[in-house]
Design brief:
213 residues; 16 strands; 49% strand; two-stranded antiparallel sheet; 8% helix; mainly beta
Length: 213
């Protein structure tokens, strides 16, 4: 039985670019490719609510850095909320993104929140986010904050697009993700540069109790 009084749900799409190799060891309970983790994720809510507040059509971005594997903590995070959101919608989105009103371990947001020791002040700005999950293509831009895009993996011999997916039965973010690659440069408040590294494209449907199946 849920111990969370406030009910919420978001259904939409995501594009995540991290610094690991194409497979991303995190997806397999492995250690990060380079010994540390950093990532940028864009999210589009097609349908959503938090209590009586609708969240349809809004977007948000998460920027993360950990000095080692995520589960060892000491992380740093920044969030960008769609400037179109009303004050009430901003508050509700921030509660979801910061792991509040959520059962422990139920969503990627709640899990990440337990590993972050420095959370920057939220940014409210226009978010340019376009994602085509099946085609493994995305664009994510917040002027002055982050600029990134995603593409399919290309076979180095034939030049053809390579398609591979991760089917995660007991995850807390998605059930099926298309895997590609991405390039992202962030300038504030966390600086990073990702080049031709892991890209994840997925349809998501999350609630206070985890993935909605």
């Amino acid at each position: 039985m849920s111990v969370v009084d406030v009910k919420w749900a978001i259904k939409g799409k995501e594009f995540v670019n991290c610094n690991c190799s194409y497979g991303c060891p995190c997806q397999f309970n492995g250690l990060p490719t380079h010994g540390f983790c950093e990532a940028v994720g864009g999210f589009q809510i097609d349908e959503g609510f938090h209590g009586d507040t609708r969240l349809d059509g809004l977007k948000f971005v998460g920027i993360f850095h950990w000095p080692g594997p995520i589960h060892e903590g000491k992380g740093e995070a920044a969030v960008v909320v769609d400037e179109r959101a009303t004050p009430e919608q901003r508050e509700k989105l921030l509660r979801i993104m910061c792991g509040q009103d959520t059962e422990p371990g139920a969503t990627v947001f709640q899990v990440f929140s337990t590993t972050v020791e420095k959370l920057h002040a939220p940014i409210f700005a226009p978010i340019q986010f376009e994602v085509d999950v099946d085609r493994r293509r995305a664009k994510l831009v917040v002027t002055g904050v982050t600029d990134g895009h995603g593409e399919p993996i290309v076979n180095p011999i034939t030049g053809h697009e390579h398609r591979v997916r991760i089917d995660l039965l007991d995850g807390f973010e998605y059930t099926l993700a298309e895997i590609g690659r991405g390039w992202t440069t962030t300038s504030s408040p966390i600086r990073m540069q990702l080049k031709d590294s892991y890209g994840q494209f997925a349809n998501i449907h999350l609630s206070q109790s985890g993935i909605v199946r």
